[in-house]
Amino acid sequence: MTVTERERLIGAPVDRIEGRDKVEGKAAYAVEWSVPNPAYAHLATATITRGTIRAVDATAARAVPGVLAVITHEDAPELADGSGELGILQSPRVAYRGQVVGIVVAESSEAAREGAELLRFDYAVEPHDVVLTSDHPTLYRPDTVSPGFETDTVVGDVEAALHAAEVKVDATYSTPAEHNNPMEPHATTAIWEEDALTVIDAIQGAFFARNEIARRFGLDPSRVRVLAHHVGGGFGSKGPPRPQAIAAIMASRHVGRPVRLALTRRQMFALTGYRTPTIQRVQLGARKDGRMTVIAHDVWEQTSTVEEFAEQTSVVTRMMYAAPIRRTTHRLARLDVPTPSWMRAPGECPGMFALESALDELAITCGLDPIELRVRNEPRVDPESGLRFSTRNLVACFREGAERFGWAERDPTPGIRRDGRWLLGTGVASSTYPARKWPSVAYARRLDDGTFLIRIGAIDIGTGARTILAQIAADTLDVPLDRIHIEIGDSDFGRAMLAGGSMGTSSWGSAVVMACRRLLLGQDEALADTEGEQEESASKHAFGAQFVEVAVNMDTGEVRIPRALGVFACGRIMNAKTARSQFIGGMTMGIGMALLEESVMDPHLGGFVNPDLAQYRVPVNADIRDVEAIWVDEVDTAVSPMGAKGIGEIGIVGTAAAVANAVHHATGVRVRDLPIRPDRLLGKLPR
Amino acid sequence: MRPFRYERALDESTALAAVAEPGARFLAGGTNLVDLMRLGVESPEVLVDVTRLPFGDVHETVDGGLRIGAGVRNSDLAADDRVRMRYPALARALLSGASGQLRNRATTAGNLLQRTRCPYFQDVTAPCNKREPRSGCSALEGVHANHAIMGWSERCVATHPSDMAVAMAAFDAVVHVVSRDGGRVIPLEDFHRLPGNEPERDTLLEPGELVVAVELPKPTYGTRSTYRKVRERSSFEFALVSVAAVLLIEVGEVAEARIAIGGIAHKPWRAHVAEAALVDKPATEESFRAAAEAELAQARPLRDNAWKVELARETIVQTLLELA
Ligand SMILES: Cc1cc2nc3c(=O)[nH]c(=O)nc-3n(C[C@H](O)[C@H](O)[C@H](O)COP(=O)(O)OP(=O)(O)OC[C@H]3O[C@@H](n4cnc5c(N)ncnc54)[C@H](O)[C@@H]3O)c2cc1C
Ligand code: SF4
What is the CATH number of domain B224-323? Predict the structure, then answer.
């Protein structure tokens, strides 16, 4: 549908501006840009888990026809900052299986790959340790958890409150390592010229990537330009530049030609980050009426020896419910593994699986409806900061969802509904995600033909960001959509938030509104920067309620999801079509997390053993039958002038708990370890 | 990818001559072989394309059975009316496999000869006796929650991934093969091997032998058959356990039973013990359960896959109940 009437743009289900180009294959992704005389690079990766490279034998690799160069730690250029995951080829150390140990550049991608496979390394192997436990000897308390939260918080005497509580839940949950699997692999085209470096990258933030790349190579940021017009999904894994970008740049400098480098799907499992496995103990104390007096949420998770990543798993518990006494902690084990990183809703997603499962257990212990339990524990102000919530419509989401889902008829008794050999159940869980923004710059210009040019360093990772920003500009300028020319995905457009943290729309949209308003005041062009803007002081979060129906086969333990409904309160919805896609996409990923997704670590070899889409399972269409998302009316101008919060991540938060809670309702079996595989149910199912 | 030569054979004798070259391999739909070439697991010097050979159709035999050409596409076979009416377990098995696109390319012979999905087999950096004899078996002590519970050896605990072959095993299919020395017929049940000391050999097929057809005998009048595939994902997923069952019930008693189980062994597992236990027994859950238990008494689960024994038992029982 194409909407041109003025009033209806924001919120209307406008088609993606670039949708047709994508369907026709005209939208160029990172290694599809046409560049003159490209060479191709392929990475060689470590086949041991820990140790040191003693010697490199590149004879066979160099002998492959078409191979132009082989780069290893022996001859790689020294980076200005050679630390962490991006500090590739700076030393002979191997810190995890799959780490970059070489780059082969060739006339064709086939020759480069063949060369990389023939590159031989002689390793001094050391014993490794790759398995997270809650009593791991390397456990430590990080200084902060991502992206800068306090590691631990304690309010009140937790142990005494737990001891004194009338009703208690004490349970330990776990989530496995999980990998983002965007359709487009991580890929880069790098063009190193004497006075300038151009990087076309599969990246969620061009501006941040430019600064990081400049810093790593010791270049003035003004000499570096990062472009990303189309990005085929990211979910956080394309937030920061990944090693393939550094490798492509090194390779381009080495051969003096543009270089294209795309990771293979298998390489992505070591080189693009993943969600840390978590072990989470949740202790709840409550009065008989379900009102919680105390919550403790203690988390164990992993990081690498290369750099620290501390997932903020129990941070959400600090603001979610009204218990006056609270403790949240995070401990990290330093293992010989790739460094975990962002995956859709880092922190909230695994944390809410544990917290919302525990709430379900509490509801059952108290004999309360799980929705009613959440209503009773609804805080009046943010329990952590004491600030009022700018908007908090969690209860409204539950009420609306209960009505649509038919919750009122639910008999809470577990394990009594059958359809043939299938046990049926329903479950709910809360969702939440912070609503934040970050200062961004937008440029707007009135063109002679009565149209407008908008430029902003936003990135569209497939979410519809480009379209929404055009809608926002059109509405602000009071013109039809076809009068807006929007350009994004270029670091030269100035500082801009990356497509992450569900902050894109609020951050970029605020800047676009600011620039367009200046045009309305009579300027012909305007460069607006939301830096320094006064922010209303309030606790700002989006909320939602997830309803799931499951069917569990009583003989085989197979779990299917006939129905899922998400109801969200995320401020004003900018585009009904792309928003629905984000919500149901998040929910689908949440169903994957609940039932399928799991990166399996081999303790002996030390790597993930299922690194492809046949073995790392994500849901297919047949798994997703009736998934719907709706939203309640909400406008939150404390977050952004459009009244919008972010929507990219909340859809995945709570879904897995809703599934686990529904599985309990269906079967009476509480599965506290994800994913809910048949082997975790077999032998326990009622018949 | 390593360079290789591609040859298209138009008749049996050129195919057999071409494949006699060192490093030569037959290529059918390529959905397994080409994947393995990309992974470096297979690196043939010559690919002999056999999809133009005249064995792309299904026809009835004089005995009332069905002869399925080695080149028949999985999707065509599943849609064949004779298969759907007389061998419904086979149609179901085919349709439960892979995806529409893959079934459009995959062939009868290619499906039979597809390699295991053991993750270590696919990872050239991991020890694997099947890929590299005597390098060790990474799965034995490693990740093996979905590996074999029957008939494995210390050398290899992998399972055969095919759905189609499981159904064919339950129908007493035979495989017709030819070589430059002539032809032979191998019962499908014996076609796939147990790993023993030579896990690198999946089947009895000798190098240079070409599969030309799979023949299904005429089903006994009145038999019913079905295929049940258990999997975590609803589609596009290999079986955790699958069961093909062919049952003839006469006045409440089992007159004939043929059961094959997938996902539990290095080959489609014909459940002879269960079959023998069923014959002349009442077609009830009790006898089905007793038969399943008798069969699975031979199971030797690994450290992490004992759950598959229970899953196999329940799947056998439920599949038989569906036919009772
Ligand atoms: C993602 C994915 C999911 C899948 N899921 C399933 C599933 O759920 N269930 C299932 O059963 N299968 C599944 N498969 C496997 C699929 O069924 C096989 O790849 C396919 O059947 C192989 O047939 P092909 O014709 O493509 O064989 P090819 O790849 O062409 O050949 C396979 C082997 O057979 C040999 N060969 C071929 N023809 C002959 C002949 N006439 N004589 C002698 N040797 C021959 C080749 O040399 C090769 O070694 C899946 C595959 C993929 C990629
Ligand atoms: S089970 Fe077989 S295929 Fe798997 S690693 Fe062991 S030998 Fe290789």
Answer: 3.30.390.50
